[in-house]
Each structure stands twice: as structure tokens, then as C-alpha cells.
Structure prediction request, 499 residues.
Amino acid sequence: MNGLCCMSTALDWINHWAKKKPAKAALIYRGAPISYSYLAHVVETVRRFLEARLPVLDPGSGERPTAVLAISSLADAWVVTLAARALGMDTLSLPRPDHPLVESVKSVACLIVMEGEKVRLAPDTAHADKLIAIPASIFGAQHLLTIKKVEADLQGGNFLLSSGATGMPKRVLLSAQVENEVADIYAKHALLTASSRAYLVDYTLAASGGYMYGIACFKLGATFIIDGKIDFLKTFYEADFDYVTLRPSHIDTLHASATLQPPVAKPRMRLHIGGGFMNFGKIEWVLKNITSNVFQIYSATENGALTKTKVTNAEDLLWHSVHPHRRIEIVDEAGNSVPDGTEGILRVRQESYTAKRYHDDPVATAAHFRDGYFYPGDLAMRRADGRVRVLGRVADVLFIKSDRFPVGPVEAEIQQIAGCLDACVFARQNALTQTEILIALEADAAPAPERVQKLKAMFTTVDAVHVSAYTAFPKTTGGKTDRAALRERLIAERETETS
Prediction:
């Protein structure tokens, strides 16, 4: 990485490699390579295009100007993000311009779409008066000019979206000041080198993996392959790569497609899986048929990867190996450490490169960032050898596969289907590595079988759904449902049934 010692952002690194190795692929999008040289050219072209169309910004708003992107093509979104950051703006990439989060973003400098997607905008779209539509022609070969160094405002950053702790999207800023440190950490985490070809499946620029692994590749001069869900199986089996990050739902897709698409062995590939509980039976199939280099990752957008565990048996899916130099603690509600083997609340010590707050919710910030620690909202326990098991959620968030849901709307639907007085729902990973949904109903009588079937049909992607009915839920001293006590009761009953 000679020549990179004074460079600290993705734009610096792209310009460096555009001069040193211009023909090398920086991105591969749907099979088409995008060289470092072309990427540098087109970022500068888009920067100029945006600069000429930006409205006058209000310096008294109290926040940095934000460029909101609603661009479906991941390759185009990367180019526009880098160009907007070069103009000193923070960036936020969303799947569509009418995303609910747009309403809450302050100091929006512009709403950027591609010209062909402009027709999707409704007249009442938030910030439509700041719309900039980029013509597809701007990405054409006619813009292959002499490389010009992009002048970047180093105060800009990129917003990532996190919903793990709260169940609702929250903005987490990855600032330019920590980009160099984050790139190094993610490169070491994934064992990336200059020759690496990393595959990021369906990870947008608002996802921590999608952005952070991307900038790690840019720093090293490596190549990363970005793709959408529709191309997943074809790219996974046919593309040349040595590292991939998948979610549990992707493993489900691989396993389910085995009869139509015979698996292709990739013994050198390192496969990282994160984002939810996993069934060892499906992981075992991957170990036997694709690669033995499978790692389970437990991470948070706010704090990055916290554990990394090589998976060889079912126990490795249940018990996580804490990353070196990361400090994970299991505490009670007062913040006191609990003994090994005791359930408690998981918290992680904040580092210099990790988030310190949410940019759109001071209430959630106060709940999850406290006294130098981040509380991701998980119950956990530690065993004597230092490994940690994640048991479920503290907060009212339902974690199924790779998705998070606020439990309120889910429990309201359960209550309506069951016709009960109250309802609570929990998710957990049992000792067989199965994902279980536990539904508790407060009712005068057990629900009819047809209603139970409708409840189970709400959760078709999990391994097992169990419905229990009680005449009364345990209550706190304030008269509210004691969710912790109810969850413990449900789990104890399940353990008794299976023992």
C-alpha cells in the first residue's frame, strides 16, 4: 500500500489505485467490471454535475447537509455517494424516495435519483423541491478524461441504517475521520488482501457490511462484487471470489435450491454469516458441499463485528468467540457483572471508531448508548472459557432470520387472530440450533385449533412455532406484563417438554 500513508478516505484510495493500477476492477456489478480508472473518472464527472445543480445550503441549520440517494443500481449508488461526499455532504442511501425515514432527515441538500427512475416520484415526495435527476449518459465512455484528483471535504460521511436495537431504522454516521481505521479493521476481520475478490450479496450502502467492506476493498486496491437478490445463485456459483458475507436467508436459498442447482465446491472461499439465528443442519450441508471455511459473525451496525466463530459443529452456532480487543460484558439491570452461566444484558465497550449516538432519535440514543457502552438489546450469558451465547432480545424487537420487527404490530395481529385479552411473542435459538417463535396468549380458554394454525402461518420462515395460553400473565409491581418473567416461563416449559 505504498503511497497510502497520508490518505484517509475512500476517495483518496480510489484515486491512488486509478493511477497505480488503472485497469484493475474496483467493482463488478452484475458481471460487468468497473475499473479503478473508470470509477475515478465517473465520480469526478458526477461531482461536477451535482456541484452545478446544488441549491444554496442553509449554514444555520445546525447539521451538515445531507444528500439523500434513492438509486436502485448499487454501482450507480456508489458513484453518486462518492461524488456527493466529495462536495462535503453526508450521504444517505435509501431503497426508494418515499422511504419513511426521508421525512425525519434534517438539512437535506438534495434528493438524488437516476433520470429513468424519476417517474416513480409522487408529487408529495418529501424534498421533491430539491430533486436532482442524473442522466444515464453521464456514465458513458465519453467521460473517460484525464484523471483529476477529486477534492473531498473530509468532514463528510455516510449514514448507515440500524434497526437491530430498536426495530426501527436509525441513522448511524460513519464519519470521514474514522474511515481509515474502519477500513483497516474490516480488512483484518475478513482477511482481505490486494488480490481479494469479495462478494457482498444484496448489501446496500446503508448497510454496515455493504459500506465498510467496500471501503476496505478500496483501501487495499482489491475488488468487490456487488449484486442483487435476483442474481444471487448464479453469481454465487459462477463468479470468482474468495470471500463472501451472507445472511441466514441466503443459506436457506442455497439449501432449498440444491435439487435444481447442484452445489459447487469452493474450498478456498471464506464464508461469513451474520444477522440472525441459524440451523446447524443447513450449515452442515454447506460444510460438506461448498466450503469448510464457515464463520458465524455477531455484529451491530453501531459497533461492528463483536464475535467471529469458525463453525465446525452445532455448539459453534450457539456459543460465540469474542473478537480479540473487543470488550463484551454481561450485566444485570444495575450494570453489575453477572456470574458465568447466568443470563444477563449484553453490552459492548465503545471504541474510537464506533458510533456514539443515533442522529435522529435522542430517546433511543439515551437508551442504548450509556457510560461508554453500547447496549444492542440482547440477553446473553458467558461460560467459563469466555464464549458468549446470545439468548434473545431485551427490547420489544422480534429478530427473525435477517429481519427485525417491532413486536407491537405483530402482537396486535396475534391478539386479533386469537381473540385473546393480550399477547406476547418472543424469538430464540434452542439447543438444537433451531429458530423458535414462542407465542403467549392471555385468555380465558385455549384458542381453537384453526386459530392456532393461523398464528403459526404468520411465521413460515422459522423452524418451529409454539403457542401457549394462560389465564393471566405475570405482572410487574406497576401492573404491566412482566415480559422477562413470561419469557423465562415459556422457555422453561419448552425445555421441560423436550427433555
The chain has three domains: 10-225, 250-393, 397-498. The domain at 10-225 is CATH 3.40.50.12780 (Rossmann fold). The longest strand covers residues 422-429.
